Amino acid sequence: MTPSKEIRVALAGNPNSGKTSLFNALVGSNQKVGNFTGVTVEKYEGFRKYRDYKIRFTDLPGTYSLSAYSPEERVARNFILTEKPDLVVHVVDGTNLERNLYLTTQIMDLDIPFVIALNMYDEVKDKNIDINLDHLERLLGAHIVPTSAVEKTGIQDLLDHIVDTREGTITFRPHKLQYSQTLHKLIHDIEEILSRAKDLNTSQPNHWLAIKLLESDKEVYKILRDNPIWITLNQYLSKHLEPFKHLTGNDPEILLTEERYAFIRGALTETVHFPGKRRRDLTDILDTILINRFTGLPIFALIMYLIFTATFRLGEYPMIWIEDFFSWISIGLKNTLPDTLFRSILVDGMIAGVGGVLVFLPNILILFLGISLLEGTGYMARAAFVVDKIMHRVGLHGKSFIPMLTGFGCSVPAFMATRTLKNDADRITTLLIIPFMSCGAKLPVYTLLIGAFFPARHAGKVLFGIYIFGILIALGSAGLFKKTLFKGESEPFVMELPPYRWPSLQSLLLQMWHKARMYVRKAATVILAASILIWIAGNFPKDENVAQKMDALKTQIQEQDLSPYETSRALEKIKAEEEALQFEQSYAARLGKALEPAIKPLGFDWRIGVALVSGIAAKEVVVSTMGTIYSIGSQVTEESTSLRERLRNDPAYNAAVGLALMVFVLLYVPCIAATVIFHREAGAFKWTLLYFFYTIGVAWIMAFIVYQLMSLFF
Q1: pLDDT tens-digit profile of 146-156?
Q2: How distant, in Å, are the alpha carbons of 305, 431, 497, 678 from that of 416?
Q3: CATH of 6-167, one of 1.10.1520.10, 3.40.50.620, 3.40.120.10, 3.40.50.300
């Protein structure tokens, strides 16, 4: 029987092992992003055609183990156990073997086909680390393929190994870890009991189930408790665990961990030789400056400032080009299509809304390129380390800063990242302050308002100030919560600092491509739908009295002895006035005017009120709403200006209003998707209510203060 021409491969490995870079090197742009079934953890899949095979790769989330403490760990192990890929490629950082091989020992317990991609092998050679690969292969029971995702070496060897394994020319050499006699007896006895179980609803091997049972794995306990064999298992554990603890002085879970690391240290002692005296490398030299207690924080602030300045300076020209492109389309459609509702919804609704958001795509890409660069080089981990002392002053620690930094990209994964915090008080506090971190969806609003009300030379400073202001509000709120709702000590902060590495250009470009695709997809779905709804709300209901009055004026103009040009201009003016009067009676205007008393002290009018309400769906919709509102009631001609120009020329707005609006958008409740995830992560309705009303309350107070202070100068 001919084997299937598709090979399914899973890539597993620690964070910072270069796993995703290797994935990008293997599949290039032939990849897609989604979510794993039932969770919001991102799923990267790609394929590579090689030797008449289509090899489908799945990049599993980075994880240090296959326990069930985090969603990433659950996703990785469930995929391996239930999806049953043909081969697991375990990506190992060759310069940090002791940490990385812990995951290897757990994969060995699964008794599945796997190969080790010894990544960053170029750095191994640069550091003169001598590894006896043949001997290490024998000890681990798996083939080892040296690779370098950055230099693209070993990629073909790895692909050959995958295909040869499928064709049977390379065979898997299973090798289970040998535990001490006391542990081995416990594991063997539990395996014997499990072998007698009937209708055990799991594809997981008994050896692995036995080990996980001794590690008090909640998911395995749940599986086994639903089977009649649990009675026998429970009797055995009740009888033997206490004597075991008394004999060894430890829980089985602790001993399993210790024996895994003992095996790793022994294996490395036999197979790895380090140079006699380790010379100071680039990581050591940079860390003396970048995590220094005096220079670390100023350098971090400077780096972020440079990124925000580049976001504006480099993004300005492509932004103008895209702006002119959509203006050209609008003018062309206005001059070509007859004056109907279809033309209005197409130009004033869809193009004005979606185009107003897509204009800021270059700025989004530059910002995410900067953040991806910091993550890829290993600097982001240092940033968390640098702010650890500041976080301690508000009752948290550096580990909480990681979800906060993630919030610069999107609040949804930032909320999920709080699962790494084992202390519930720290976790809920961090969840409550993440909304104050400026996510990428807010950047179009800042770019629009800064471009409208501030000189270009100050744009980077204003944007940097907004981001810093959000961090300060977050830290102040954390201090408030820890002194009132969540008193007590935080958990100790221990974090791995990976060596500095220059990420591959391909990896950076692919990350930018994914962000761009997600942004454009949102523009084509959520923002498009919101733009159409805002157009409908801004055009209906129609006031017949206004229509009749304007028709009478049009008749008078046509009866006058005017030139064709004068008649056309007069009719355009009447039509614009009619649309403006009709808009005043629309559902959108009624909603905005109902909100106006509450937001007027902030310098906002009813139009901003409508935009802020629509912004709860997604923050980019604030821009598309303003674009739609300004398109309704104004004719697009050759002299038409961009939304930035219209805001700048509107006498109702100035820099004080613009800055207050940026502060409000920064601080008030994030999008609906983020709110749903917050509620799921917080686990109680009371925290969701606090999150909703606290963010709106803080946004109102801070915007009021900013507007009143700025009004003294503008």
Answers
A1: 999 888 999 99
A2: 27, 9, 22, 8
A3: 3.40.50.300
